[in-house]
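Researcher: Here's the sequence for the chain we discussed earlier.
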Amino acid sequence: MSTIWTKSCESEMFMRIRKAFRLQELSGSYWMRLTCSGRYRLWINGVAVARGPAHSGTDVQRVDELDVTAFLKIGLNRIAVQLIHFDYFTAQGLCEKPGFECSLTGPGVELQTDTSWKLSVDKAYQLPSFQRNNFYGPQEIYDARQTENWLTEEYDDTAWLPAVEVECPWGREIPRGVPFAKEFKVKPVAVFRIAEVLDQEHFPEMWHYQSYRSLAVTLLQDVPEEPTLSRIDDAKTLLADAPGFMTVTQPFADDPAQVDRRCATVIFDFGKELTGYTQFEIEGNAGAILDVVHGELITAGRVQAMRQGTHYADRYILREGRQTHEIYDWKGFRYIQLTFRNLTRPLTVHDLQVVFSSYPVTHAGSFRCEDTLLEQIWQTGAYTQQLCMHDRLMDCPWREQVQWLGDGRIQLVIIQNAFGANELCRKFVEDFAHSQHESGLIPSLSGTGGKASVRDIIDYALWWIVAVQDVVLFGADKQFVRTMLPHIERLLNFFRTYVNEDGLIENIPGWVFIDWAHLKREGCVAPLNGIYCMALHCAENLSLLAGDDNLAASCQQAIRRIEKNFHRVFWSEEHRLYRDCVTEDGPWEATFSQHTQVIAVLSGLAFTDTRTLMERTLSDARLVQTSPFFSFYLLEALGQVGLGTEAVAFIRERWGAMIRAGATTFWEEWQENGTYRDGAWAARPRSLCHAWSAAPTAWIGRYLLGIRSEPGQNNILFAPSVCGLSTASGAVPTKYGVVDVSWHVSGGQFYAELTLPDLEMKITFRPPTGYEDCAELMVNGTSYPRKTVSSKKKRKVIA
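Model: Thanks. This is the structure I predict for it:
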């Protein structure tokens, strides 16, 4: 199969490809394999079939394989593909040179890309167009006057150019690895506002698109006012499938008598954050303009076209008559603002909808209790996570849509408790292995091209080893571990370069993140060394599982050196806390954080009473506080030392505040539109849907319901925490299947019942604190012989 493109290889190219073939019969199954350097959308015989390919790592290319039997017919068939190539890094990955490959096999046909395929640049997309931000493709400016009905059977493509064979721009090809997105149509639920803005098209001195090359920058100048010269009628007809249409009337662009020009604008509310492709059906004069702005929130009565450097504006220029269009890229948003320009007669909007798109999750997990706020927090966390799952994990669907390593490690645990979507978790780990730098460092973003970057976060690389173990706990086999082990060893060799005489890592060049919070990160950093120790524990376990005794022994030796010196180097007897870092000039006495105490507990390096240390961590207001990201680990530490009631209070306070503020998904930081990350308040826009903030959904399943897998053991631990509740129930996915949990407290007794999916499954029961001698457990209807496990047992691998 040849890789094809065209002789003209412009950047940001919107390309169209067609191929006709005949089938004499239609029997058996027909399979298509295809991939490209950017993104594709596939139609067969005019019917939309698929979008792809899946996000890839640097050294490999994901190839989609799909059964297309249902789309074929006897006689003439036509394949049509829209291709979008970016020669710069986007969330999809990096492929600097363009290319497309496709094959179709089945009874009576053996088809593959070659010079017989026809290609044409889609001139309706106006280029160049300003990039949305450093992770996106361009803003869309689509001139429908240049469009053609190229998807139809009757379309004549004889003027199109034959494809040329080009050098394949990617490496080894591997399967997609995950299912295609789940898609369905969603309508807005409310009209938020109808207003009007000054017609910038009529006042060239206001029109900065050509100079800035950003439509969004120009649309920022649209200041909505109450309508006086424009009208929008029947906007509510777009909220449901009832008959009707919205009509827009305003001063006409071809009327010289109209001096004061105003343009109508309307904001639609979809009720909650969504991820999807916006579609509309519209009718008006040729040259009329529809500007579309998507956003997560309303600011000063409008949807901002640019927020935190993200340009969320698109433009559609109408041809004559009735027409439909779908904006090429999907977005994360709640509100859509439509602004109409250059009308010479009333304009009609027949339909507005969004094709909701996300990973096809199954809600295998669930949670119920007498506290409706906790229930809502669990559900909101699950929905937040879902919106950050497509063909990859993402930090957020609005701003970046990229697969960050440290964010994703937290997401793996959330996913397992809410959905059990193990294929995507495994692909996440593989994508980073396939992107490993020559130095051995695992990058912070997958698919970046294999070059070291300022975005490479040192501690994120260590979380990748923990993520490999997560995937094993979710059910991956020994062969998967053996595949990952060479990458783990290369990564550990990178860190050994920076190990000092105490066995601690220090002065590693690069970005030591830990958290957004304002803690010290200079010299020898305590939380970084704790994470390093956790990664070594995981590497040791994985090595033993794969049968690599040499690597396991090397990890054990490194762990012993850290255990010998961590407490001595970082412990402050005066403050009874661990310092954040030490430098060549001596210890930093001024800064202590929650983060360092948490990691000391989770890594097993805290040589003090861990429960007392965590009580102090919560109560001492002088400590640097965790942001939502690191609060995942704070909650883990509270759960492990038996402070479940305190953890639930923390969840109610912090995540409950978001719910009370009207959040439909959880925010990147504690504030909707600002941060304390630098030690003082800064008004800075934040993502309002951020998966790392869904930590309570994972914690509730793991500690309140109490179901979790433990490394190095072939059983499931049932260790619930009462947390001041009288009853709780739900379901928690495990590698053996979904475990149904129900427990309640009555008369000083703890009663629990489990329904296991596998009768051979082993359960270790650890009663809640305070109920060690008065707990009863039923498993699949049979009384369970209680077996307690000491809470002082040393945990080999944590979190």
